[in-house]
Amino acid sequence: MKSSPGFQQRREEEPEPVPVTSRLVPAACPAGAGGGSPFLVAVIHPSSDFTMCGIWALFGSDECLSVQCLSAMKIAHRGPDAFRFENVNGFTNCCFGFHRLAIVDQLYGMQPIRVKKFPYLWLCYNGEIYNFRQLKKQFGFEFQTLVDGEVILHLYSRGGIEQTASMLDGVFAFILLDTANRKVFLGRDTYGVRPLFKVLTEDGFLGVCSEAKGLMNLKHSMSSCPKVEPFLPGHYEVLDLKPSGKIASVEVVKFHSCKDEPLHAAYDTVENLPSGFELETVKSNIRILFENAVRKRLMSHRRIGSLLSGGLDSSLVAAVLLKLMKESNITYPLQTFAIGMEDSPDLLAARKVAAHIGSEHHEVIFNSEEGIQALEEVIFSLETYDITTVRASVGMYLVSKYIRKKTDSVVLFSGEGSDELAQGYIYFHKAPSPEESAEESERLLRELYLFDVLRADRTTAAHGLELRVPFLDHRFTSYYLSLPAELRIPKNGIEKYLLRESFQDSNLLPKEILWRPKEAFSDGITSVKKSWFSILQDYIDQQVDDLLLEKAAEKFPFNPPKTKEGYYYRQIFEKHYPGQSDWLPHYWMPRWIKATDPSARTLKHYKSTAQE
């Protein structure tokens, strides 16, 4: 890894922490609330009441729990601050595991959360509930802890699981146990920003985990390996808990669709917006709701930073974030982070944005060898073999590694979701009609948990960081999707035109950044001399011979790879997750064109500043 004095940052394998100032780039339940017995607790240090973490639970295990819990350690990266395992009183074959990244009190921040008012409820959750204070005030809930997730217990007691899931404004995956009624509930946020996987066998053994790797090697007395599956976003599941500790699924319910205004909007800090589709009204509402989406995500006692590629989405997030941090009297400066190879377009654009908004900017420079060397650990972290997801994850994985080792930023803002919501992909220029564009936008949002949201979560969580994505705010997305289809399509040859136009007069960003065309990731992060796309093709061409590719469909009958790059990624995936190829139902590919590769650079409309 190279560095240039005074500007570019060096990422080393095992660096000692150094003072922040030497790294900056100048730029203008309480345990005891019930009868559970923790059999392993290790608290590393206290921090705050908001957490990103790893959750894990077993019900009806036939094997020794102390052995099974070794699987939970495979997600320890999600919560490096503390961990805890606790078995359930009266159900000796059921237990919870929790890895905590604390984002006020080390006792109350631990999970499973239990409170004296509801001794029969056990909660493990991963995420942030942004409206917990409003709900607490609205319904007169008396909290025992400082934890945002405690609101889940109160909502459930007040109105049941459907109202609970629908009233949560945030990102979440949860496991809720009600021993009084012998029920288990699983739930996940609308876009799957927080991950959740489960395995349920025919004989009633249930395993639940933030990542699939924590369920892969569970022991259970059955002839075939139990099937691990992603839990669908925007759904909750009701399961019966039998006296034996075994589980039976009762129903899976979809509680929210991205187009529907969320139930919790009635208690939002932004109340009634002006109605109608007059352009100035629409643009004003977009600005108000987006600022609100960023503002509510400021809740953190750990340092906030922002990923910054220099594209529209991350630049807009960083600019609004810095503005609101100042208004909220957050005293430390915003750290922004860019990654690329020498002279990459993203680095140059991000540098311009950082100077404009006045952030403390960090650049991470990587070379082709470092990118290629990271591929296997990236695929292991991702739990997917999707081609474009793997390509785009390498840079995000490496910059997250740098942030964890060399800075004190823990909560990271990013621009995921904008391309899907605001029709930012190049192929939207080829849409047959505004209505088909709108349908495609909704499909992409429904599938985010398989692609960009998966990438964003795994690459940051792999290094104990928490990601926040304001473009996927429930209120913001439902409003944007309610707009007439013809308002949301590309215009004058420019994608995301309405979003750009909404911030045209805000002076948040330089005009050339606000109207910067979309860059293929492989071009954006790499040198003008050679793209990441080309580097990968050259390397993988030497690793996979033609004969292997010819027989790919025989070896991999489900989603057979059609390119050497796809074959190479699939081999690595199968090494770590054999027989789990259906976690990816299909590859990410552009529509309305004849495409053999997901990269934007293969589309005729695409113009890059990079040269081969």
From TrEMBL:
**Which pathway is it part of?**
Amino-acid biosynthesis; L-asparagine biosynthesis; L-asparagine from L-aspartate (L-Gln route): step 1/1
Q: What Gene Ontology cellular component terms go with this record?
A: cytosol
UniProtKB keywords = Amino-acid biosynthesis, Asparagine biosynthesis, ATP-binding, Glutamine amidotransferase, Ligase, Nucleotide-binding
Extract the Gene3D superfamilies matched here: Glutamine Phosphoribosylpyrophosphate, subunit 1, domain 1 (3.60.20.10), HUPs (3.40.50.620)
Q: Where is this region: Disordered?
A: 1-20
Ranges for domain Glutamine amidotransferase type-2: 53-242
* Catalytic activity annotation: L-aspartate + L-glutamine + ATP + H2O = L-asparagine + L-glutamate + AMP + diphosphate + H(+)
GO MF, one annotated term: ATP binding
Q: Which domain of life is it from?
A: Eukaryota
Q: Does the keyword tRNA processing apply?
A: no
EC number annotated for this UniProt entry: 6.3.5.4
What processes in GO biological process is this protein linked to? cellular response to glucose starvation; L-asparagine biosynthetic process; negative regulation of apoptotic process; positive regulation of mitotic cell cycle
The protein, known as: Asparagine synthetase [glutamine-hydrolyzing]
Q: Which organism is it from?
A: Crocodylus porosus
Query: What high-level taxonomic lineage is stated for the organism?
Result: Eukaryota, Metazoa, Chordata, Craniata, Vertebrata
**Name of the gene:** ASNS
